[in-house]
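Query form — protein Aminopeptidase

QUESTION: What is the three-dimensional structure of this chain?
INPUT:
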Amino acid sequence: MAPTESLDRDILPDTVKAVNYDLSIHDIELGGAFSYQGTVNILSKITKGTKKIVLNTHLIKIHSAEVSVDQKSFKTTDISYDAPRQRATLSFTDELPVSEDATLAIKFQGTINNDMAGFYRSKYKPVVPPAASVPKDGDEHVMFSTQFESCDARRAFPCFDEPNLKATFDFKIELPEDQVALSNMPEKETKKGKDGYKVVSFERTPIMSTYLLTWAMGDFEYIEDFTKRKYNGKALPVRVYTTRGLKSQAQYALDHAPQIIDYFSEIFDIDYPLPKSDLLAVHEFSHGAMEGWGLVTYRTTAVLFDEKTSDAKFKNRIAYVVAHELAHQWFGDLVTMDWWSELWLNEGFATWVGWLATDHIHPEWDVWPQFVSEGMQTAFALDSLRSSHAIEVPVKDALDVDQIFDAISYLKGSSTILMLATHLGQDTFLKGVSNYLKAHAYGNATTNDLWSALTKASGQDVNTLIDPWIRKIGFPVVTVAEEPGQIGIKQSRYLSTGDVKSEDDTTTWWIPLGFEGKVGTKGATSIAFTKTEDFIRDVDDSYYKINKDNTGFYRTNYPPARLAKLGTQIDRLSISDKIGLIGDAGALALSGEAATPGLLAFVEGLQSETNYLVWSQILGSLGTVKSVFSEEEAVSEGLKKFTLKLIGPAVEKIGWETSADDDFLTTQLRSLLLLTAGLNGHEQAISEAKRRFELYTSGKDKSAIHPNLRTVIFGIAMRHGDKAEYTALKNEWHTTPSVDGREIALRAMGRIQNTDLLDDYLSFIFTEVATQDVHTGGMALAANTKTRALFWKYIQDNFASIHERLSKNMVVLDRFLKLALQKFNDRESEKEIRAFFEGKETRGYDRTLGVVSDTILGRAAYKERDAAVILEWLKAHGYA
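ANSWER: The structure tokens for Aminopeptidase are given below.
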């Protein structure tokens, strides 16, 4: 390896450093091959004499390259490509001299692909006649945009594509006169191009990483608003762009974005750094959104909302995703992680602060309990496997980094930050963050830089507290033993497989206990638990609770009698406390550290609960139990009866009729309870869903299904229906005008019970459904007991074609396999999956295969261990 490369990462030599890119895209072929020509002039420093320049390219053809230094020109004599490492080497006969201002001029050709990476095209069906020049791809029209994170700027133009090789960018693009071009900065000028074309150039960007460069062109329109705060003396323009005819659906996002920009400018004590903020809805998108500096791109369901036809649950998603991406404009864009191993710095922080901003704007949404229920439990699930990884993880190159855009980087990262921010106090924490951002603005930083800033702001040694959480895999369970007036506590590593060996359990974590119930004190006492075992004295025997509001990232294992007692003291528990207790009880049953009857008995006491997020956790934890035991008929039927009795009163109370007064959480609760009722055999729910489905799909009464109840009614109708319902849902997928309609119909179709319909559904997923949504169908089939094994057989028989279709964007293939394979409950299936992939080139999804294996083995062990115990409890309580 060249001396500039450290052992754990494959990086470019440091002989040439880009200072500014002047990039021009022209001669775009609109249709057919979708090729384009480009020129890029890279103002560079040459730090030592060299005859070679190595830079990143991927699927790009370089026509020519020359370097100008001190009025002297050096033409390249050879251009060679190293495709696996996504590099091109430019060779010169004479040595290039050391220089502060050399210009590397490259002419190249690229393709606007349809892989959702690099400079790519998205298909869509226009809702109004599009501009005349908008090209078609098959039956649909296309728009063009970029997606460069993590390492795909190199697919669009030759560049030094690493996060710490920052530069400024001047960008211009030639496009048809009737289309709109966007980029990170405001438009600088528009000139006439060749016939029917114009050339739009943009202002120079601040110094930034290549992956943040963004541009788009298409038949766009926008709506605009302004911030309340002044930036450089004037309000900042904020726009949401859509393809023509959709801008009215951008209002909800636009209501949020200016407020969020002002909020972040305030709490970071740094004004938003650019002269404008644009949001763009992109019709095909691999992730949820991407934080291009000044131009953020979004999947349509993460930014568009139609008050008449959308499901209200997407409001929550849009508010949060907009906040998450705007947080990156500071944390990620202004200050960028030094290397991809610290991706969590960007994502974990943006997740935490995204929820913070959402809570600021929507205090009525119970945002932090939502985070405990959705974010934290998802992180726990992945981090409870041996195949998890540390938050900060060695990343060698592009293929490695794609796999860590996962629940550890985002959700364990943000859970750790929540724990630390709660411990230090939010104001102190944000003061440290502000100092960190100011110290490293327009540069790169490491995890340790953040800890230093927080240490200084708080006066506490943050690095020592938090280091094991970042650099070690896993998390602890705190096990409680009771004695009169005091409790013993012990921490050990939690594994969902329940088979912790001494070599797994070598970390002693700093655990902030947040202890309620010390005699003579009100509220929670902060206790730092930093040993393997300890005592807490003066404990009130009538009520105590560890991990107040569940802000700590650990499980708590209470003695069974204590858990049962807490079940009778519901009024003393916050929403987050209840969610945490249910999540812990479910997880400890899975690992065998507690038994499932403890969970069942605890949730039985929550029948009168009215909060959506608590119900969501109850039914989520029960759903895992039901899913693991779905093939054990007696247990499965008993659990259905148990669930129906549990939700009965709540279902009666909430009913089918929506009201204008319903708040966001009530709307969500109605959907959750009715769907659960119908899927578990509630006769009235089934007949009402079928009645409404028939009215709606026959066209007799389109108002029979409220947009918020599509998931419920489609799901129940398909679960208890057959070919007619399937055909009606397929038709719904084809004709829905709603931005979220396809996702909802596709998921419901996956509930088929008649396996004769499976071939058609599979063919539909892989031929008609957009690549960005293939995983939605896969997830539905994997969760469905009737189709799971047949779906796996289909994957094996058709792996070559699935791989070819999805691996053009490894993020998509990786996500598909994870969701398609992790629901098996037996050791045989795990062996079969492992054997199938043995000997295949699995780089890019090898981590996921480890996760799948561990998940299945944990479920299998749970099934073997608890089947008899659960059945006995169900019988004793009259459910079986």
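ADDITIONAL NOTE: DSSP finds 26 helices and 31 strands in the chain.
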